[in-house]
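::Encoded backbone::
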Amino acid sequence: MKDFGLKKLYYSISEVSKITGLEQYILRYWETEFEQLKPSKNRAGNRIYTNKDIKLILEIKKLLREEKYTIEGAKKILSGLNKSPEKDNFAVQNDMTPEKNGKRELKEDLEEIKKFLIELKEKL
């Protein structure tokens, strides 16, 4: 992934296209095929991608382009990552119930926002 200097919280589809090396129409198509890829939209209705969305896109690209999976095969792998028994056992052993896991993700997002704001303040 290219480094554009300041890490952002949200990226436009054109920025994600440049970062991932994929055409915008491919990104839009993948949204219809992969249920995990659902970028939010801003007030103007434009897609806004997070860093997690970009990581997912790069994983999909790797599965399809490098590892030569079909879209259906890539869907199975991605859904398997979310529902694997090993992951469920790990979650239970580490007390990562969906509620606690959601709080953990929120905490990680807030830490990322905090880091972003500190970096922004330092640049001003």
The chain has two domains: 1-83, 84-124. Helices lie at 13-20, 24-33, 51-66, 71-83, 85-93, 98-123.
